[in-house]
Predict the 3D structure of the following.
Amino acid sequence: MRSAAFRGEGNFAALLVAPSLIVLVVTTTFPLIYLFWSSFQNINLAMPFLDGFAGLDNYRRMMADGNFWHSIGLTAIYTISTVVLQVVIGLGLALLVMRIPAGQWLFRIVAILPIVLAPVVVGLFFRTLMFAPEFGILDFVVRWAGFGPVNWLGSPTPALVSVIIIHTWQWTPFAFLVLLASLAALPPDVYEAARIDRANALQRFWHITLPLIRPALVIVIIMRAMIALSAFAAIFAATGGGPGTATEILNLYAYRTSFVTLDFGYGSALAVALLVITLIVSGMLFYMRTARTT
Amino acid sequence: MARNPHQAARLRRGIVLYAVVGLLLFVWAFPIFWAVVVSLKSETEVLAYPPNIIFEPTVRNYRDALVGGFSILPSFATSFIISGLTTVLTIMLAVPCAYAFARLRLRGKKALGFYTLVTQMVPPVGLVIPYFLILNRVGWLDTYQGMVVVYLTFSLPFAIWLMVSYMEDIPCEMEEAAFLDKANRFQALWHVVLPQVRGGIAVTVIFVFLNAWNEFLFAVQLGGNDVRPVTVAMYNFVSVEQTLWAKLSAAALIAMLPMIIIGFAAQRQIVKGLTVGAVKGGGRR
Amino acid sequence: MTDRKTNGMLLQRRTLLKGAASGAVLLAAPAILTRRAAAQGMDTSSFENAGIDWRQAEGASITIGVIPAGYFQNLEAVLPAFSELTGVNARLEMTPPGQIRQKAVLDLSSKTGTWASHAADPMYYDLYVANGWVDALDGYLGDAKLTGQEWFDYEDILEGWRGATSVDGKPYGIPYDGEATIQVYRKDVYDEAGLKPAETLKEYAANAAKVHSPDSRLWGAALRGFKGAGQNMYIYPSIFRAFGGEWFDGDRMVVNSEEAIAALDWYVKLLNGYAPPGVENWNWPDIADAFGQGTLGSYIDAHSSAAVIANPEKSKVVGKIGFARWPKGPSGKRVTSIWNWSFPINAALSEKDKAATWLFIQWAASKETQAATSYAFDGAYKRSGVNRTSLWQDEKFTGELSRVGDNFIEATQQSFTEDTDVDWRPRLPQWPAVGETMATAIQASLVGQASVKAALDEAQARIDGILKG
């Protein structure tokens, strides 16, 4: 019965998939091949006389490049801390909001706003209106509260903290909304049973809520990690990777190498490295998801 | 058990709860609120220390951003055209593709699915130069078609994956019923499947539009005089001579206005779009 | 009034503005609508004196990349006069300042010819020339068919700027607008403390120490601290040269010499000691804003920053500003910036487009257009960075400008004539990478990521690597 109805399915499917695939091949595969190709070349606009095939030189250079490892470290710090903060704050907020009987809509609306803003706008806003030492409001508040002047974007550690705050501000609402929705979808009866078992709030959360929303949590972590790894515009607008190289995550380092120092070959190699890292991290996270859910 | 102490404790807890939640609400709303405040100040007031809370609001910044020498209105139109075209094309391509991925047997489907996922992960920084060279070759730099094609590269994989989750939710029986009715496959897709995923399409439309509207890196490198989206036009207020913070805030808020409106109006769809897959327990089986 | 207008250099008609009721300001709205497009007529008769056929490239269409800045907007406003004169359709493309170099390099390297010319960073000429991306202009200048030599008077363009846009003695770009860095100080504050503008860098730091009182929100001094070849690596080279530093030892570039260490040490100590918190992230608009708010005793930066600090709409210190040349360094030298935006010719163009582009450049850099976009401009913003010695000596240009503050014209003029130094910054094709490396090192030592010596040693190692390839 089914096989009869679905005869010729392959052809039909191919017909449906083909247009998208052709577009993707044309628009991403060529550039991707070019990217790989140039990562094996010497292409330095400042020294055109050296252009030519470089073999693995760019990758060898990368391994010995302190800036590269520094940016990898920053990428790790940035990704892990922003993801953890988003999930913890987002989940905490979702649990709190679940308990308020009225006014949830207000939170949804406020939470939508950061998500729809362009990161470049967010970076610019925070750079000046929030963090700038003289007229940034956050700086003013911190000083007024007696914590003394903090040179937010001007010294290495606070600058890193600042870009993490910016990212967390913009994307925690995402985690919040997803987790709020999955909490709302939980059947109320499981809690009743637990209450009868005299489980306290923490136990209930740990043994019942958490396992139930684990799939949603994992999805949030995956999506947030991907976005954090490819963060660019907000940091670019807020600190440009500085001071020094204090906020120069791999993405920005690749950008600087290609576009500021004009070393396209090495810049391409750095971009490839970022792609590989992204693939590995997402692969690991996807593996974790399937391993846990089945 | 005495009821009163219990109630009092509950009340106290309620107050604490609202206070905490209210504080967090404030923290999240504040930066945008402050941007609005700044956009209503004069440039001198923006720089005042301590910050003025009381001031005479002016709409001059908005007027300048809209009709001044650097009006962002033309860029507004540009952004609408680019984002709109990108969205339409993306949906037309992604919906059938997602349907095939979700519902039909196709050799190499897994590999193809993985491929679309990978294309989404390529760091844009690595693509700018190749795009520039390619668009240059075909003469599409600083054109609408050039920008739309570039935007398709990230909107299409994203849309396909989003739509797949929706397609998987429709019960198979309906199509099978349609086939028994001798509806051909296209008719089944058109009349049976599409109406079922209208909500999903709405969500996808919103996200694709949003991402295209907010893009900056490609816009600045591949656009130009003819095609200058709002995210780039905004930078006219960050000149080398001085940064006009109040005007920049006004311009940025205007540039983001369509997004904010969409955010409010399509709140439910956005939440759905964000949570698709996540809520129903891990999405794809 | 648009932003450009209101922030123009002290030339608003204050009385008129003050007298005008708010209603009248609203009535002015239609003028805003048309302001950018509002082409200004120019007296084209003087162009006939050039004695060349201005219409020789008629029908050509060229785009010139520029940044959104008042001096290019004024040029845009008078641009129709050029099209009328030549029959060439020329357009300016406003590009964010952070991206213009990259766009230009992409365009040039791919031989696209999208930008016939662009506002070029003088430090990029070595790179352009090494790649053969731009045409040498001596041929154009020497061609009587293309150039009205006497009328154009290339030699009248400020000498330092001509040097900055030439490579091995050959011109590759024609300066359009630029600046000198000068000392800016608060007259009232200095008077009260019995100080005079510094003659030496040592005195400068001492002055900063004397007026420094953060408790009353007055900091001693500020310089650019933001990381970038055009930010901190714009101000540090002046100090380095004033300390007697040399960029090259034979063929080898040296950035960690004793002079370099002393120079950077001076910079770091000055800023860490007497600059406001956050200076590490300041570019010159931030400095000018702070000075305008009355929180800075002094700064050293471009003369054109006077537009902000002398603008009553933005500044609280109007009338309290004094200017002076750079202080001397231990070597006895004062070294000012020779920064300017200049126009090269893209080598990838057709012959006809090249001719059209040259006509544009010649027109834009001519005395007439320089005047029409500065003092003779019909708008509140008038350029202050004109490219010609003759204009800097012309009452009509200097007259209103001199009211910005004490000694403004004199300090700027003398800087142009006496304090320029072609080797202000190291000129080599690898400048983008070298400049960026230096900028990172300077900022790293400023924020304490590394000691001055360690930062410069690391920069030296990196630069050795860059130049080795």
In short: The radius of gyration of chain C is 22 Å. The domain at 39-178+341-392 of chain C is CATH 3.40.190.10 (D-Maltodextrin-Binding Protein; domain 2).
